[in-house]
């Protein structure tokens, strides 16, 4: 059938450009972060971390799930897109004003007076980001990840330059604010430059009701997810200090480099790809399981390797002053390794148009997460991180329940698909940890040897044991080369 090669070609290209964009952007951001972490203090990062939950929640209201609704709708019109555009601008302005007047109360909550001005400035990103959601959604729907990768890379380089310049000139935490504001501005300008779409002078209540009918459930589930994901910084900042929160956010940022990259790649490519198969359950299940296996094969060793070499990595890159982040990073890696698997399971519900189940799952999972948070919080930040591991695993069981009902690929089948990868990744992580901990050499050499040994061990054992995921990755690369010819 001609449709299958077309879908495969689009998916391969999508994976390639989405991966290239994410890893190149994160690579630039990682380098910028390393330099800035040496110039700034844990408290500087902690102050910005205290505001994350307020900006993130407001951003969820601004988008309101309209981006996913536009991507899913195959017969979207210019009226649909224009309606979403104008709604985003109005919503963003409303929430900026709300945060502007709430800023003094946020500062009082944390007992950090300088948060008043920080809140009022950083909140401008809400209005700026509201101008490019439609353009970005349309490019994603067309799987035009080459252009989005280019935009993201240029933005990362330009905003990184702004942040570094301010950090070198002793702006402190304002260097982080400048980086985020400039990132939002560059991103909007580039999306308007590369996108052919422009808003028309039309607002359709019919389009709003149709898109919001789907997106509203994503809004509420997104609010739950955003609130829960940022409740740890909120509690750490309130119960401990800005410096302690800085250590936590640094550990989470290190762990997020591989985890978030793979999750973004999988979500960005799997959702539009699976949407084209939404009416063919057999092909949907086959493609879905392939995404699961390949995701685990890539992300699990990355996270276990990161946990194993955490000590030499942190000390080599950002210095001894960040040493408290090492243990937190090792624990968080075991939690965040499951994020891409969560993302694929949730994408299936969106593909099937079951945003109601998506919302129901989010409510259940957040109740589980809050339970583990309440139980672990009295025992310190390390215990909170351990509780996050148990929460992530329990939530995976919940996530896979409806997947099993809809296409008969439930928890045990998915764990069976990933079991060999899990065992091999743990073995590799243990090897890297032993090298990083017990080799009596400099941290830099420990890091280099650990990475090389772990990579050779993992790939070598995968080839020896004939992992099908390795063969599938090789085929993806060959298909990409054919697609370019």
UniProtKB/TrEMBL annotation:
Pfam (any one): Polysacc_synt_3
Q: Which residue ranges run through the membrane?
A: 15-39, 45-71, 83-106, 118-135, 147-168, 174-194, 291-314, 326-351, 363-381, 387-409, 421-438, 444-461
Q: Where in the cell is it found?
A: Cell membrane
Organismal lineage? Bacteria, Pseudomonadati, Bacteroidota, Bacteroidia, Bacteroidales
Q: Which residues form a coiled coil?
A: none
Q: Which CDD domains match?
A: MATE_tuaB_like
Q: InterPro entries per the record?
A: Poly_Biosynth_Transport
Query: Which membrane topology term applies here?
Result: Multi-pass membrane protein
An example of a Gene Ontology cellular component annotation for this protein is: plasma membrane
The similarity annotation says: Belongs to the polysaccharide synthase family.
Protein name per Swiss-Prot or TrEMBL: Lipopolysaccharide biosynthesis protein
| Keywords for this protein | Cell membrane, Membrane, Transmembrane, Transmembrane helix
Q: Which organism is it from?
A: Pseudoprevotella muciniphila
Highest taxon listed in the record's lineage? Bacteria
């Amino acid at each position: 059938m001609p449709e299958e090669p077309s879908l495969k070609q689009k998916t391969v290209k999508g994976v390639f450009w989405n991966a290239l964009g994410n890893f190149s952007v994160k690579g630039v951001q990682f380098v910028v972060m390393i330099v800035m972490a040496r110039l700034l203090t844990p408290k500087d990062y902690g102050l910005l971390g205290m505001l994350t939950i307020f900006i993130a929640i407001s951003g969820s209201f601004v988008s309101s799930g309209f981006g996913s609704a536009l991507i899913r709708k195959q017969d979207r019109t210019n009226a649909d897109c224009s309606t979403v555009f104008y709604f985003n601008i109005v919503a963003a302005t409303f929430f900026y004003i709300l945060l502007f007047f709430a800023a003094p109360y946020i500062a009082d909550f944390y007992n950090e007076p300088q948060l008043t001005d920080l809140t009022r400035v950083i909140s401008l990103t809400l209005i700026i980001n509201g101008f490019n959601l439609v353009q970005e959604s349309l490019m994603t729907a067309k799987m035009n990840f080459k252009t989005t990768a280019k935009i993201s890379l240029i933005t990362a380089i330009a905003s990184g330059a702004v942040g570094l310049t301010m950090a070198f000139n002793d702006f402190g935490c304002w260097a982080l604010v400048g980086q985020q504001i400039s990132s939002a501005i560059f991103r909007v300008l580039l999306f308007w430059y590369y996108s052919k779409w422009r808003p028309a002078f039309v607002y359709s209540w019919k389009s709003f009701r149709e898109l919001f009918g789907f997106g509203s459930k994503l809004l509420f589930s997104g609010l739950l997810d955003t609130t829960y994901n940022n409740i740890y910084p909120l509690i750490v900042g309130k119960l401990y200090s800005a410096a302690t929160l800085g250590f936590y956010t640094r550990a989470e940022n290190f762990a997020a480099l591989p985890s978030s990259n793979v999750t973004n790649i999988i979500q960005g490519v799997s959702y539009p790809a699976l949407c084209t198969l939404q009416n063919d359950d057999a092909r949907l299940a086959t493609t879905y399981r392939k995404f699961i296996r390949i995701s685990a094969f890539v992300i699990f060793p990355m996270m276990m390797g990161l946990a194993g070499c955490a000590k030499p990595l942190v000390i080599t890159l950002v210095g001894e002053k960040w040493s408290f982040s090492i243990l937190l990073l090792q624990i968080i890696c075991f939690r965040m390794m499951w994020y891409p698997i969560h993302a694929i399971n949730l994408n299936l519900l969106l593909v099937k148009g079951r945003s109601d189940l998506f919302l129901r799952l989010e409510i259940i999972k957040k109740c589980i997460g809050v339970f583990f948070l309440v139980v672990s919080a009295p025992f310190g930040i390390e215990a909170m991180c351990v509780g996050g591991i148990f929460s992530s695993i329990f939530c995976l069981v919940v996530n896979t329940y409806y997947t099993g009902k809809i296409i008969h690929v439930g928890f045990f089948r998915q764990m069976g698909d990933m079991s060999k990868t899990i065992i091999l990744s743990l073995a590799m992580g243990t090897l890297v940890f032993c090298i990083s901990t017990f080799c009596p050499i400099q941290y830099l050499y420990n890091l280099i040897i650990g990475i090389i040994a772990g990579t050779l061990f993992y790939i070598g054992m995968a080839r020896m044991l004939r992992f099908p995921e390795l063969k599938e990755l090789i085929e993806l690369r060959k298909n990409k080369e054919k697609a370019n010819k």
